[in-house]
Every structure is written in structure tokens, then in C-alpha cells.
Amino acid sequence: MTADDDTAAPAPRDPHDDARTDPDTPAPAAAAEDDAPADPDAATPVPGDEPAPGEEPVVGEEPVDGAPQGAAEAVPEDNAPADEYDAPAGAAARPSTGPTPAEPAAAPAASAARASGWRRLGEALRPRLTRSQLLAGVLCAALGFALVVQVQQSASDQLSSARQDDLVRLLDEVTQRADRLDEEVARLEATRDDLASGTGQAQAALELARERAASEGILSGRLPAEGPGVEISIADPGRGLTASQLFNVLEELRNAGAEAVELNGLRLVTSSWFVDRDGVIVVDDQELSPPYEWVAIGDPATISPALEIPGGAFATVRNRGASVTLVSHDRVEVTAVREPREPRFARPVESAD
After folding, report:
1. Where is this region: Disordered (predicted)?
2. CA 113 to each of CA 67, 101, 104, 116, 194: distance values in angstroms, whole numbers, following the listed order
3. CA–centroid distance for 165 within its chain
4. CA 289 → CA 26, 66, 237, 239, 336, distances in Å?
């Protein structure tokens, strides 16, 4: 075989045969210049770039400006395979071994477009400080600072800014208060000393005796009394009541805690007695006539239910044809008094001391 035969262009092959070839097999040599396609945009191999025997073909580098040259210019924008567009007759079709040189350029462009979109969105959402907002912030800060300074000055200079008359008045009030406190201290100290001494003990005993005398005077009927209680009015137009019914009312009052009781101006005590005499009710040797007016000092919330117990004092009075009215008061007065009589038989027991 001659050298001319080695450089002769290979016979045209079916593109389908090229598609069935092994992708790892090197591509066949390019066609001769006389068989080059008439289309200037068609891919033409460069004679100086033919691979040596046994070397794999080198794919051309991408131009700096990103625009494809040579064979890459014939690739459509939709990245269609090279064997789908028309190839000139007699040109050897190169098998598709992967993405064309235009694909790496398209991916960075899409990524850059997305990054640019996010950047524009971030810039649109980023708060922008205007001159009016800056001025308003400065004014608010200055106003707050002025308020703080004013409050501090008012708190510290309240007395320094007062008039002389006001200062004198304040000084007098403080002095008088100090004097009153000193007097209170002196009084308490004197009380403490009196209690610690024999005189104080005697005075305390005297005060206790007075309190006991007051309590005994109320219970014995010797002293008038006042306090919360009730007023009871019993009307008996038919004169059906007897001394027994009125005595039951007195007993119910005592059982309910009444401490002082008055009936028709007569002070009732522990020694009081009731009796019927010639159709008239006699109490402590005094005749009574209706209506019977009672005044009792005690807890109204306890006295009223005690008298209204079924079968109790009021029920017995009503069964006799009489009517009863009870009114509670926060304050009532028992003005009737009586001197206790001297006991005839009882004598106090002398203490062992």
C-alpha cells in the first residue's frame, strides 16, 4: 500500500454504525480537505491537531469569552446530539461521548442568574435608613436623655429649690415629731419602771379590781349597760299569759347569752322572781301589765333563733293568743339599775394568803 493510499479519505459510513461503536474506541481520522463540507459553520478538524497513533483525541478548550468556536459552533442551543443535525456527505461522524463544550458554560450561567436573583431580592428586602428616620431617632434619644436628667435633678434638688418658709415649716414639723417621739419613749420607760416596782404591781392590781367591779356591776344590775342586742314587744290583749310564759322568755334570753335584761323598766337579775297574783303578773314584787317590753344586751344572731325554736318561748306565748315582735339593733341601752341586797347567809371565803 502506498503513502497516497494511507492519506486517502475513508469511505462514507452509516451514522447508525457509528452510534453502535464502542464509546471507548478512538474516533476515526478526519476527512481530507477536498472532502470538507461546503458549510463554513460545519465542524472541520485541524490538520495539526490530529491525534498521534495510540493517543486519544483531545477535546478543544473553551474560548476565554465563553463563545464556542469550530465544531462547537454547530451545536444547537438545546444541546441536541451531534448526530441529529445534517452532516456533509463524506464527513466522518464523531460519536457522542458526553456533554458538548456548551453545557459547562450554560450551567455556570444559570447558577449566576439564580445568585443574581437572590441578591436582588435581598437588596429589596434590606431596610434602608433614610434621612428622616435618622433624624427621628436622634430626636427621640435626645428627648429621653433630657427626661432622665430632669427627673434626677427634680429628685435631688427638691429641697434645694424650696422656699425658706417651706424649709422652716418642714424643720418645725420634724422637730415636733421628734419631741412627740421622745415623750412617748419617756412614758413607755416610766410604765416599764412602774411595772417592775411594787407601786406598779399595786396599780395593776387596782386596775384589775376596777374591771372586775364593772363586770360584776353589770351582771348584778348595779350599773347601766349598752351594747348590741334586741328589743321584744309582747302584746297580750286577752290577758292569756301567765308568769310562767314570761319566765320562760327570760330563761331563753339567759341561755342565749344575754348579759343585761330589762322588762318594763325593771332590771332583771339572777335573783329576780315571777308569780301570778290575783290575775296579775308580779315580778320582783312589782305588778306588770301588757304590753311587755323587753330590752336585752347580747348577740342578736344568737338570741333571735333561740327564742324562735319550735316549742320554745315564743311558740308558747303565741299559743296563749299573744303576739310577739323582735327587732335586732347594733346598740341598745339598759338604763334600769338596782342595788343588790345583802346576802343573809352567804359569806366570802377568806384566802389562805
Report:
1. 1-111
2. 18, 20, 15, 5, 103
3. 48
4. 149, 135, 10, 9, 18
Find the largest Cα–Cα distance for the chain.
181
Q: Is the pTM of the predicted complex or chain greater than 0.90?
A: no
d(CA 298, CA 228): 6
Q: How far is CA 12 from CA 9, 35, 50, 69, 89, in A?
A: 9, 11, 19, 25, 7
Identity at 174, one-letter amino acid code: V
Instruction: Give the DSSP per-residue string, 265-306.
Output: TEEE-TT--EEEETTEEEETTEEE-SSEEEEEES-HHHHHHH
Please spell the DSSP secondary structure of 4-42, one letter per residue.
HHHHSPPPP--HHHHHTS-TTSPPPPPPPGGG--S-TTS
Domains of the chain: 1-41+60-118 (no CATH), 224-334 (3.30.70.1880)
294 burial via Cβ count (<10 Å: 0-12, 13-18, 19+): buried
Cα 343 to chain centroid, rounded: 72
Backbone angles phi and psi of 276, in degrees to 5: -100, 130
Question: For 5-32, b where at least 16 C-beta lie within 10 A, e where not — what string?
Answer: eeeeeeeeeeeeebeeeeeeeebebbbe
Helix (H, G, I), strand (E, B) or coil at 232: strand
Cα–Cα distance measured from residue 135 to residue 164, given in angstroms and rounded to the nearest whole number = 44
pLDDT tens readout for residues 321-353: 999 999 999 999 999 998 877 778 888 887 665
Indicate the SS3 state at residue 63.
coil
Give dist(CA 326, CA 231) in Å, integer.
6
Render pLDDT for 86-113 as a digit per residue (tens, 0 to 9): 444 444 445 444 445 445 555 666 677 7
